[in-house]
């Protein structure tokens, strides 16, 4: 009961925060992230392990600075999400600049199935809203343990348009059917899932359990793959969502090579804004047989 009351109070506070100007929210969010860095010991340790694996060329002090910046970006994304959930369409449109939308539009008008490849940068919800304001899309939704926040997240993702949220249990067939019906698939493939759903390919030089779904779904649906990244801009400047050119010669007959190509692309984008990647996830949790864990 107490947990439910506290959750409702947190939601009420978030609602109030969405009334603030974005520059003020950005300052508060960075402060919240700074606090998280020092009190969320487990998540801090995970981030530092990830950064040590991915950036061995950096010294310990530099990696700690990068981890603090990452937590501050996460803090910003939490508070600024309130605008995405409750802000007006006009305010959100000013907040998010969508670049390259014509690439998606031309494929959509040609009735070509599309996969939007969306790595886990902290501002990715801005991309989800920008797409939802323009298209009826499909995405995978993982239910949250907290019932109050689960309802809030679910409602927030369905706020604009007719958005189809599938669970992982719905399977490939439902996703392919949705894409073929004209829904772009907003796909986040770069988390650690079950071993049976993954293959090991390099990521920052580390053999990493990676879902091969981009290759398999692209082949099953005849879908074009468009990279989609979100850059959180400094201060009160908002977000820049970038849709890239459709990948050529993809998929191939080699889904392992396709998946390695995906990881190499994600790595290249991370290097342009490492502080905005979601380092607090145990990306390297699943190891090849006989190899010790990192965490």
UniProtKB/TrEMBL annotation:
GO terms for cellular component: plasma membrane. It is found in: Cell inner membrane. Pfam families: Lip_A_acyltrans. Keywords: Acyltransferase, Cell inner membrane, Cell membrane, Membrane, Transferase. Its main location: membrane. GO terms for molecular function: acyltransferase activity. The keyword Hydrolase does not apply. The keyword Membrane applies. GO terms for biological process: glycolipid biosynthetic process. This is Lipid A biosynthesis acyltransferase.
């Amino acid at each position: 009961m107490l947990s439910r009351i506290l959750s409702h109070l947190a939601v009420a506070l978030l609602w109030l925060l969405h009334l603030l100007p974005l520059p003020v929210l950005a300052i508060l969010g960075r402060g919240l992230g700074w606090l998280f860095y020092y009190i969320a010991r487990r998540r801090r340790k995970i981030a530092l392990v990830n950064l040590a694996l991915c950036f061995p060329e950096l010294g310990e002090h530099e990696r700690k600075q990068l981890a603090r910046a990452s937590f501050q970006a996460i803090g910003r994304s939490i508070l600024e999400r309130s605008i995405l959930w409750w802000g007006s369409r006009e305010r959100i449109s000013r907040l998010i600049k969508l670049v390259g939308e014509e690439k998606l539009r031309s494929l959509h008008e040609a009735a070509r199935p599309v996969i939007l490849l969306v790595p886990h940068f902290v501002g990715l919800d801005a991309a989800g809203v920008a797409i939802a304001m323009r298209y009826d899309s499909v995405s995978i939704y993982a239910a949250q343990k907290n019932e109050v926040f689960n309802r809030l997240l679910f409602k927030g993702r369905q706020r604009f348009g007719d958005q189809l949220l599938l669970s992982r249990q719905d399977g490939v067939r439902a996703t392919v059917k949705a894409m073929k019906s004209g829904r772009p698939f907003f796909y986040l493939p770069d988390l650690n899932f079950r071993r049976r759903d993954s293959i090991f390919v390099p990521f920052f030089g580390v053999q990493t359990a990676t879902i091969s779904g981009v290759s398999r779904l692209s082949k099953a649906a005849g879908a074009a793959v468009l990279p989609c990244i979100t850059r959180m801009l400094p201060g009160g400047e908002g977000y820049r969502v970038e849709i890239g050119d459709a990948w050529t010669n993809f998929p191939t007959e080699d889904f392992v090579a396709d998946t390695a190509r995906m990881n190499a692309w994600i790595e290249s984008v991370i290097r342009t804004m490492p502080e905005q990647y979601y380092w607090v996830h145990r990306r390297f949790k699943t190891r090849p047989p006989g190899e010790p864990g990192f965490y």
